[in-house]
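Below is the data:
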Amino acid sequence: MEFLVTMTTRVPEGVSPQEVDDVRAREAAHTRELAAEGRVLRLWRPPLKPGEWRTIGLFAADDAEELERTLASMPLRIWRTDEVLVLSPHPNDPAAR
């Protein structure tokens, strides 16, 4: 199954820039691992307002529980909320040909 996930990150007040940099570095490394495993297929950065962190991702998982385990494993999840849409194949999808 494929899932479109909007990930919105809000860093709490008082978190040091060093801690933010550390979590972001761990997030990047872990996302590369998830991509190599075929669980993160694509990531996009939509238009953002100043100070806003939001990413749209295309994920693959066997079911919603597996997707949740994947999302929960990501370091930025401590500051992030996720909005998940389950995607269904479209009969006119050019990739299906």
Notes: Helices lie at 17-36, 64-72. Strands lie at 2-9, 40-44, 53-60, 80-87. The chain has a mean pLDDT of 94. The two ends are 18 Å apart (CA to CA).
